[in-house]
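TICKET: design request
STATUS: open
ATTACHED STRUCTURE:
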């Protein structure tokens, strides 16, 4: 029967390949942007903009696939841990807001315990960030996400309220699109040098699954 260590080893070729592909699309995006700025006619500008948008979509799909691999690893193999004080305090604050609003979408707010693993990003463990990002990637066309997913993204938007480099933001109410690449940036899972994105991913996954090899 496969365990967490086996899962990481068996998915390693796919995960590492996705990270390499993601880096290639970073260069494609730069070229597409240059084509946009150098366009001399309206028709060339429109084509360049379309190419630029297509590269963004491809990049987010690759990032979403990485999040899928991470999500299923946590769902299947993460150790059962008690929620940290910061997670409990986060829940308490949200429930105060819920209690003050009779029309709130939920009556009691609770974060999924299985995904309360990993290092903290602000006051939330990264397992919850992966959980919400994977769900947004799978359901981005839905009118609204579930309460937990929306709350996590609203929190990310508080941490990064303005679009940072490359226009990355976490504002769910701006446009209907993927946020998977933006989440990888927040997690530090993008290359600052060759192979660093995959290494950061693997380090976090081994930590969340309590795997050593």
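STATUS: resolved
RESOLUTION: sequence designed for all positions
ATTACHED SEQUENCE:
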């Amino acid at each position: 029967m496969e365990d967490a260590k086996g899962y990481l080893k068996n998915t390693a070729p796919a995960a590492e390949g996705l990270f390499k592909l993601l880096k290639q699309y970073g260069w494609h995006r730069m070229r597409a942007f240059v084509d946009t700025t150098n366009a001399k006619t309206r028709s060339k500008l429109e084509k360049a903009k379309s190419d630029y948008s297509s590269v963004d979509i491809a990049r987010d799909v690759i990032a979403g696939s990485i999040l899928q691999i991470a999500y299923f690893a946590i769902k299947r193999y993460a150790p059962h841990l008690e929620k940290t004080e910061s997670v409990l305090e986060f829940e308490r604050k949200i429930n105060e807001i819920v209690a003050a609003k009779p029309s709130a979408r939920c009556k009691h707010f609770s974060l999924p315990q299985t995904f309360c693993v990993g290092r903290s990003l602000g006051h939330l463990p990264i397992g919850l960030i992966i959980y919400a990002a994977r769900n947004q990637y799978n359901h981005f066309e839905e009118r609204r996400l579930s309460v937990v997913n929306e709350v996590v993204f609203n929190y990310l938007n508080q941490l990064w309220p303005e679009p940072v480099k490359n226009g990355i933001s976490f504002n769910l109410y701006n446009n209907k699109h993927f946020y998977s690449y933006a989440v990888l940036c927040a997690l530090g899972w993008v290359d600052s040098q060759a192979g660093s994105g995959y290494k950061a991913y693997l380090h976090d996954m081994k930590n969340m699954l309590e795997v050593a090899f």
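CLOSING REMARK: Residues 42-77 form the longest helix (36 residues). The chain has one domain: 4-209.
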